[in-house]
Structures are given as C-alpha cells and as structure tokens.
C-alpha cells in the first residue's frame, strides 16, 4: 500500500482549488489596508465624487445651475438647498456640481501642458547633456525663480481671459518643475547597464532615448503630475477668483467664491462652501500623490 493511499485526506487537501483559499485572503488584505489608511480611502472617495460631478452632473442634481427662484434668494443651507442659494435664488450646490466640469477641465489641461512640455525639455536636455543642457537648465532656473501665480498672471494677461487660457497659463508655470524632475531621472537612467549595453550594441540614440531611457524615467514625473493636479486646482481657482476665468454666469469654483465676497456678513455659505470643496479636492489629490510617491503606486 502506497503513502498516497494511506493519506487520502492529505492528498485531497493539497490539490484544493487555490482560488477559493486566496479570495478571502485578498479581501481581508484590502479591508485591513482600508482600516490602516483611512485618510487615503477618504481622499479617493472625495476625488471620485468630484470626478462624478464633472462627468455626470445630472446624476447628482436635477436643478438648473443658471436659473434661480427670486423668492428663495440668500436662503441658508438646509434640507431643500444643501448649500443654500445665492443672491439670485440659484441653488449653490447645483452650481458647485456643474462648476466641477469647468474647473477640472482647466486643471487637466494645465497638468497636461506642464507634463508634456516639461517632460520633453527634461528628457532632451538630460540625454544630450553638455553645453546644451547647461543653457536649457539656466532658462529653467529663471522660470523657477518666478512665483508660479505671478508667472500665470503674466501669461494669462498676454493670452486673454477664458478657461483654456487660464489652464495654459497654469501649465506654463509648472513646466520648470517637470523639466527638473525629468532631467534628474534621465541622468540616473543613462548610467544603467542596459542603456550602456544598447549604446555598445550600436542602437541609435533616438531609439535608446525612447525605448530604454524614457520608460525608466517616467515614474517620478507621473507622481509629480498627481501632486501638480492638486496645485493646479488651487491655481486655476485663484485665477478664476481674480476674474480671469470663464465669464459669468459660468459656475467656476473660484468665481463662485468671488461672487460671495459681498455677502460675507449675511450669507457666509456663498464663499465658505465652494471654498471647502476646493480645499477638499486639493487635499485629496495631495494625499493620493503622497501615497504614490511613498509606495511607488502600490496601495497595499
């Protein structure tokens, strides 16, 4: 009689379906991670809510953001109007929800402009090196020496008012940061063994740059893009607050805060609640970017 015949139960247990044993472990691990990092979970939920406002506003409110009820003007927050109403009787919650699309559109354009332009500048400058790198980095240093909001104001004044122009202005102000980080990662990637092997093998410089250096230098830049997302929300809202964004009655977040300045004594919610939404969105984006930076994209 063989050992397998003597221990049938043991043999059966060894051949058990692995999916059944690993499933509860994975679910338990995800639950423990959520309990251990509630701030990250809350940040993800806030960002998902804001993205839902931006893409599907009709799911969250049935009111018109441009039409108000005059008899209900300056109504305090309550069961009927969650965020209260403005001086024209418009539902402030509805205007915040629909304003998410404009504000996040400008934020996405700003991050894309900074990411693409800064990545290209840092990639080429770091790979070419030498005198070219010295000249480019001195120009980047000049951009870094100018406060971001001041540079954005200068650019948007030259381009003109509007949401897209505000987004481009904020993106231009962030180009230098992306270029610096990308250049540092390119310098680090150039010393890797696989890059040296490709160079010795006769691979062309553009191919080495695109196939070997770029994929290994993108990690830190992507984390910076997540961090810049929160900063771009704040910068876009600041320029909109100053009147450089979309014209009234478009409900940009910064413009909503600006509209309530004249009613601070009698209607605090007009500035406080849209400002709270901006602050929560920025903090959520920064919390997620910190998690990406610390864990390298691993949320376990």
TrEMBL record:
Q: Which InterPro entries match?
A: BP-dependent_transpt_permease (IPR050366), MetI-like (IPR000515), MetI-like_sf (IPR035906)
For this UniProt entry, which segments traverse the membrane?
39-56, 106-128, 135-156, 162-181, 221-246, 266-285
Q: Where is the ABC transmembrane type-1 domain?
A: 100-289
Write down the membrane topology: Multi-pass membrane protein
Main site of residence? membrane
Give the highest taxon in the source lineage.
Answer: Bacteria
Sorted alphabetically, which keywords does the UniProt record give? Cell membrane, Membrane, Transmembrane, Transmembrane helix, Transport
Which Pfam families does this UniProt record tie to the protein?
Answer: BPD_transp_1 (PF00528)
Q: Which Gene3D superfamilies match?
A: MetI-like (1.10.3720.10)
PROSITE patterns on file = ABC_TM1 (PS50928)
Q: Where in the cell is it found?
A: Cell membrane
What family name appears in the similarity comment? Belongs to the binding-protein-dependent transport system permease family.
In its UniProt entry, what is this protein called? ABC transporter permease
Q: What is the lineage of its organism?
A: Bacteria, Bacillati, Actinomycetota, Actinomycetes, Pseudonocardiales
